[in-house]
Write a structure and sequence with these properties.
- This protein is mainly alpha-helical and 76 residues long.
- It has one domain: Arc Repressor Mutant, subunit A (Orthogonal Bundle), CATH 1.10.10.1100.
- The protein contains four helices and two strands.
- Strand 1 and strand 2 form a beta hairpin.
- The radius of gyration is 13 Å and the shape is globular.
- The chain starts with a strand and ends in a 15-residue tail after the last helix.
- The structure holds FE2/S2 (inorganic) cluster.
- The site of FE2/S2 (inorganic) cluster has 12 residues, from loops.
- FE2/S2 (inorganic) cluster (FES) binds next to loops.
């Protein structure tokens, strides 16, 4: 579902970043969500909160847990 019509950002885009441990402000900076009309901010924040509730460790440490560029478990 598209959350931010202005920037064409879906709930899946936001959730992917939130599950990586990013907070709303970081996601806003990265994706540009809620940076134009602002109508989507509440919904975007809800998506982030839901993801942090289901992935509390990532949210607590606010660390990116995205796979490395090479696709293996190394920390490149
Ligand atoms: S709908 Fe997201 S900034 Fe307008």
């Amino acid at each position: 579902m598209i959350v931010c019509v202005c920037r064409r950002i879906s709930d899946r885009d936001i959730a992917r970043h939130a599950r990586a441990g990013m907070g709303f402000d970081e996601i806003q900076f990265e994706l540009g969500v809620a940076t134009q009309c602002g109508q989507c901010e509440g919904c975007a924040r809800d998506v982030v909160a839901q993801c942090h509730a289901t992935h509390p460790v990532a949210a607590l440490h606010n660390e990116a847990v995205l796979p490395s560029p090479c696709g293996c478990a190394c920390a490149v």
